[in-house]
Design a protein that fits this description.
437 residues; alpha/beta; UDP-n-acetylglucosamine1-carboxyvinyl-transferase, Chain; four-stranded mixed beta sheet; 21 strands; 28% helix; 24% strand; globular; binds shikimate-3-phosphate; binds phosphoenolpyruvate; EC 2.5.1.19; EPSP_synthase; Enolpyruvate_Tfrase_sf; 3-phosphoshikimate 1-carboxyvinyltransferase; cytoplasm
C-alpha cells in the first residue's frame, strides 16, 4: 500500500454475507425453488453452500451472483458422507449447529485454525436445553459432533449477549422443535433470519426484543434479491471520509436498521454521508450512499451502537486514528472472539503506525490526529502489519494507507476472500494505491 490518494467514482460492493448464508439455509429447507440474486461469492457463504450440496440439495450456480436452490423441504436433508468444513465462517458453524441438531443423522462440523479457536458453548448450551446432543472439545470449541435425538423441545431463552448467530441458531432449531422456541435479546442484533423466515412464509412472532417460532411449519421457496453488504461498504465509507478530495457513490447498500450503526458512528464523528433513494429490496431496506471527505473528530462510541456496528469497528478505528481528539470504545468485548482478537490485533497495527492506542478488556481508546507526528513521515520502508488472517483487519489497514504517513505492507490477507473477494480490484479502481504480491 502506498500512502495517500483519495477515493472517487461509483461502486457496488458485493452481496451481504449474513443474508447470503441464510438464503442458502432457508432455500434448502423450503418446499419448491428459490431464486437468489446478489449472492456473495465469498468463501464463507460458499462453505455454507457446499455443506448443503453435501446434504443432498441441488443448488445451481453461483454464476454472477445468481443461485437457484431446489429446496428439499424441512425434512429432506440427507446425511453427508463426512465432516462438513465451515472454513473461517463462524456464522456457518453456529447457525448449522442449531439446524443440524434437529436432523435424524449425525454430523461433524470442522473449521480452520481461527474457527476452531472460537467459542461454541454459546450455542451448544442452549441447544442442549432443547434436548440436543452436541459434543465439543474440552474448551467448548469445534470440532462439533452432533448426534441425532428423537425430538427437540422449544425453550424460552434469555440471551446473555446480543448475538444474531445465537438467536438464529436457536430459531433454526426451533423450526423442528415441539412447541414454541423464544429468544429474548439484551439489545437488538441483526434480524435477517426473522425477516427471511417471513419472506419464506414462516410465521415469526416479534415483540419488544423477543422472537418466537412454533415448530412444524413449512417454508415456501421464493425470490430473493440480496443487497450490498454494509460491512464491505464500511471500508469505503471510512476511506472516503478520511482522504481529502474523496467523493464516492456506493450503490444498493443494505440499510437494515440493525446494521447501520457504522453510519451513525461516522456521522457523529462528522462524516458527510448522504443516504440517497432509500427503497426496499426483497424485505430488506437499501439505499445509495454518497460519501465525501470531511474533518472527523473523536467521540465516545455509544454502547447500544456496538452490536449494530460490530463487524465495522475495525474500520471505525481507522477513522478514529484520522480524527481530531480521542475516540473511546467500551462494551465491545465480543471483538476479542472474532476471526482474530480484533481489539489487540488492531491496537498492535495502529501502534506500529505511530498511533497512540490503549486496549482495554472491552474496547480501546485511540488518540487521533497523530499520523503527522508519528516520526514515520516520508519513510520509504513499509510498516509491516500482521492481519492475523483476519479479513476485516486486512481491509481496515488497506484503507488506512489513504492517511498513514508511510507505506503499509499487510501480511496474511488471503482471507479477504471470505467476505470480499474483489476488494483489491474494486478499491484500486476508485483510487486506493494497492498492490497485491
Ligand atoms: O448472524 C450473523 O450473520 C452475524 C452475526 C455477528 O456475530 P455474533 O452473533 O457473534 O455477534 C457478526 O459478527 C457476524 O459477522 C455475522
Ligand atoms: C465475524 C465475522 O464473521 P463470522 O462470525 O461469520 O466468522 C465477520 O465477518 O466479521
Amino acid at each position: 500500500m502506498e500512502p495517500g490518494g483519495c477515493l472517487r467514482g461509483v461502486i457496488r460492493v458485493p452481496g451481504d454475507k449474513s443474508i447470503s448464508h441464510r438464503a442458502i439455509m432457508l432455500g434448502s429447507l423450503a418446499d419448491g425453488t428459490t431464486q437468489v440474486s446478489g449472492f456473495l461469492e465469498g468463501q464463507d457463504a460458499l462453505a455454507t453452500l457446499a455443506a448443503f450440496r453435501r446434504m443432498g440439495v441441488d443448488i445451481e450456480g453461483p454464476a454472477d451472483g445468481r443461485v437457484v436452490i431446489h429446496g428439499v423441504g424441512l425434512h429432506g436433508l440427507r446425511a453427508p458422507d463426512g465432516p462438513l468444513d465451515m472454513g473461517n465462517s463462524g456464522t456457518s458453524m453456529r447457525l448449522l449447529c442449531g439446524l443440524l441438531a434437529a436432523q435424524p443423522f449425525a454430523t461433524t462440523l470442522i473449521g480452520d485454525a481461527s474457527l476452531v479457536a472460537r467459542p461454541m458453548r454459546r450455542v451448544t448450551e442452549p441447544l442442549a436445553r432443547m434436548g440436543a446432543r452436541i459434543v465439543t472439545t474440552g474448551q467448548g470449541t469445534a470440532p462439533l459432533s452432533i448426534e441425532p435425538v428423537p425430538a427437540l423441545r422449544g425453550i424460552d431463552y434469555p440471551m446473555p449477549i446480543a448475538s444474531a448467530q445465537v438467536k438464529s441458531s436457536l430459531l433454526l432449531a426451533g423450526l423442528f422443535a415441539t412447541g414454541r422456541t423464544c429468544v429474548t435479546e439484551p439489545a437488538p442484533s441483526r434480524d435477517h433470519t426473522e425477516r427471511m423466515l417471513a419472506a419464506f412464509g414462516y410465521p415469526v412472532e416479534r415483540a419488544q426484543g423477543r422472537v418466537c417460532v412454533h415448530g412444524g411449519g413449512r417454508l415456501t421457496g421464493c425470490t430473493l434479491a440480496i443487497p450490498g453488504d454494509i460491512s464491505s461498504a464500511a471500508f469505503f465509507l471510512v476511506g472516503a471520509s478520511i482522504a481529502a478530495g474523496s467523493d464516492l457513490l456506493l450503490e444498493q447498500v443494505g440499510m437494515n436498521p440493525t446494521r447501520i450503526g457504522v453510519i451513525e458512528i461516522l456521522r457523529a464523528m462528522g462524516a458527510d454521508i448522504a443516504i440517497l433513494d432509500p427503497r426496499d429490496c426483497g424485505g430488506e431496506p437499501v439505499a445509495d450512499l454518497r460519501v465525501r471527505s470531511a474533518p472527523l473528530r473523536g467521540i465516545r462510541i455509544p454502547e447500544p451502537l456496538v452490536p449494530l456496528a460490530i463487524d465495522e469497528l475495525p474500520a471505525v478505528f481507522i477513522a478514529a486514528a484520522s480524527a481530531e481528539g480521542e475516540t473511546l470504545l467500551t462494551g465491545a468485548e465480543e471483538l476479542r472472539v472474532k476471526e482474530s482478537d480484533r481489539i489487540q490485533v488492531m491496537a498492535d497495527g495502529l501502534a506500529a503506525l505511530g498511533v497512540p492506542v490503549e486496549p482495554r478488556p472491552d474496547g480501546l481508546s485511540i488518540q487521533g490526529g497523530a499520523w503527522a507526528q508519528s516520526g514515520l513521515e516520508g519513510a520509504r520502508a513499509p510498516v509491516s502489519i500482521d492481519s492475523h488472517h483476519d479479513h476485516r483487519v486486512a481491509m481496515s489497514f488497506a484503507i488506512a494507507a489513504l492517511r498513514a504517513p508511510a507505506p503499509i505492507e499487510i501480511r496474511d490477507c488471503a482471507n479477504v476472500a471470505t467476505s470480499f473477494p474483489d476488494f483489491a480490484a474494486l478499491s484500486a479502481r476508485v483510487g486506493l494505491r494497492i498492490r497485491v504480491v
